[in-house]
Amino acid sequence: MGNDYIEAARVFHEITSHSYTSVRSSPHLLDWDIKPLPYKIYPGAASVPLPRDLNLSSTPALAALSSYVPADFSASIGTEALTRILFCADGLTRRKQVGGEDYHFRAAPSAGALYPIEIYVAAGSVEGLETGLYHFSPADLRMAGLRRGDWRGYIADAAAKRPSLLRARAVIALSAIYWRSEWKYRARAYRYCYWDAGTMLANLLAAAAAEEISAEVITAFADPALETLLGIDSDREGMVALVALGHTDEPTGLSPVVEPLALETIPLSSKEESYPDLVKIHRESRLLTPEQVTAVAEAKLDPAPAPSNANALHLETVTSEESAGLGETILRRGSSRAFAQQAITAAELATIMAASSEHPQADFPMLTDSYLIVNAADGMQPGAYYYNRRERAFELLKAGNFRGEAGYLCLEQPLGMDCAALIVYMADLERTLQAFGNRGYGDAHLEAGIHGGRAYLAAYSLGRGATGLTFYDDDTTKFFEPHAAGKSPLLMVALGIPRSPIKS
Of 354, 12, 349, 363, which Cα lies nearest the Cα of 190? Predict the structure, then answer.
C-alpha cells in the first residue's frame, strides 16, 4: 500500500462522487453544537505582532495575476512585505452576523466559509523577523513562535533538496485541518481542502508577484518529516503544499535537531468525528521516503493530444490597467450568493480566462483542463466550450441555451442557471494517477483551486462576481462528452453580475 496503490484514489473518488440519487439518499444534518473553531490557537506560545498599517498593493490585479517573477538574489523580504503576502492569502477581512451565527470572512474563498487551511512560516532571511518557525494567526494578525532556528535546510531535505527551498528567504507551509471541512462535507471534504488551499495560493502568488518576490509551489516532500517539524497529527491535519518565497545567495545552514513540539492547541470543538475514507486516502497519498519524493518530483506527464479546431474563437481582452488594484480587489472580494441573469462582455470573459489559466511556478505540471457553459456573454454565442489555454482560444463544442443544464449540474443551484458563464475545471485522473500516484489526486484539485481562485480575483477586479460550486460528477462529464471523455470535474466557478452590487 502507499502512494503507488492508485486504486485508493480511484475508490475514494467514486465513493465521494455526487449524483442525483446519492445527494438525496444520504442527507447530512449539521450539528451546530460541535461546529469547529475556525482558528488554530497556541495559548502557550510566544506571540509576535505583525504590522497593521499594511498599505496593500495598488498593482492592477490582472497584472499581478499574470506576472512571473524570476529568482533575484538581491530582492530582500521585510516583515511588512511578508505580512502583506500572508494577509492577502488568509487575512481576516470582515465579520458578519448571518442567521445568528458570527462569520469571519477571509481574503481567499473557502468552501462553506469553514477555512480548514493553516499557514506556517519558516523565516530564514526576513528583515525585522527573528529566524524561526511560526504559525500565522489571521484572527489577530500575529504569529505564534513555535521553534527557534533556521529550518529551511530541514524542509529542503524533506523535499529532495529542492533548489528553490535551499535558497528561499522564507518557506510557507500549508496544512489542512480536515475536521473543519468534514463537519459539513464529510469525506468529500478532502477534495475541498485542496480547493481551499488552491484559492489561498492564488492570492498568495499574486501578492508575492505584486511585491516582486519570486514564489514556487512544491508538493513533493516527505510528509512525516514536516508533520514532526510542525507538531501535527497527520490523521487530523495533513500537509498540502510548500511555497519557496524569495531567493538569497546565502546558503542555508544546518537546521537544529527536531525535538517534539510541546505546545498545546485549543480544541476545535467538544467532539470531533473522523471519516475513515478521508483518513485512508490521505494515508495512501503520503510520501514516506526520499526515493518516493524523488520519484514524484521527477515524474513526467506528456501533454494529452488536443484535437485541432479551425473555428477556435480568439477574443480581445481588457488591459490590466482597467482592473482594480490587487489590495482593493482582495478586500472587496466575496462569494456572490445570487446572480442577475445579465450578460458580461466576451472581452471580460476572455480576460478572466487568460488571467486565471497560466500554470503556476510549481513542481508539478499542468494537470487540469477548462470547460465552460456560456449563458450570456455579449459578442459570444451561448453554448458549451473548451478553453485552449495554450492558444487562449475558445472552442465551441455545442451551441445552445444551456442555462437549465448548468443549473442542474451544480446540484440544481440557481447560481449556475443565473450566472453569465460557468467554468468547469476537469482532469484525466487516470493519466495523473499513473504518473504521480495518489499524490497526483491532491495536486490536480490544488491546481484547479489555484485557477479558480485566480478567476475569482480577475472577476472582482473587473467589478464582476464569482462563486465556487460543487456538482454532479458523472453528469458533468457526460454533458461535455465526447470532448471530455475520461475526464472528471474537480471544481466549478460561476461568473456574472451579482444581483446585489459589489461594495468597493
Answer: 12
Report the alpha-carbon distance of residue 214 to residue 70 in Å, rounded: 6
Q: What is the pLDDT of residues 116-127, one digit of tens each?
A: 999 999 999 999
Cα separation, 260 vs 270, in Å, equals 25
All structural domains of the chain, each given as residue ranges with its CATH number in brackets, are 30-298 (3.40.109.10), 320-498 (3.40.109.10)
Strand pairing class (393-399; 377-378): unpaired
Cα–Cα distance measured from residue 376 to residue 416, given in angstroms and rounded to the nearest whole number: 12
User: pTM score, two decimals?
Assistant: 0.96
In angstroms, the CA 210 to CA 84 distance is 10
In degrees, to the nearest 5, what angle opens at C-alpha 339 toward C-alphas 425 and 180? 55
Task: Give yes or no for a contact between 109 and 93, defined as CB atoms under 8 angstroms apart.
Answer: no
CA geometry: angle 460, 464, 468, nearest 5 deg: 75
Alpha carbon distance 114, 196 (integer Å): 9
Report CA-CA distances (Å) from 280 to 188, 236, 267, 275, 373.
12, 12, 23, 9, 35
Could you read off the pLDDT of 289-327 as tens digits, one per residue? 999 999 999 998 876 666 557 679 999 999 999 999 999
State how far the Cα of 115 lies from the Cα of 108, in Å rounded to an integer.
9
Quick count: other Cβ atoms within 10 Å of Cβ 260? 7
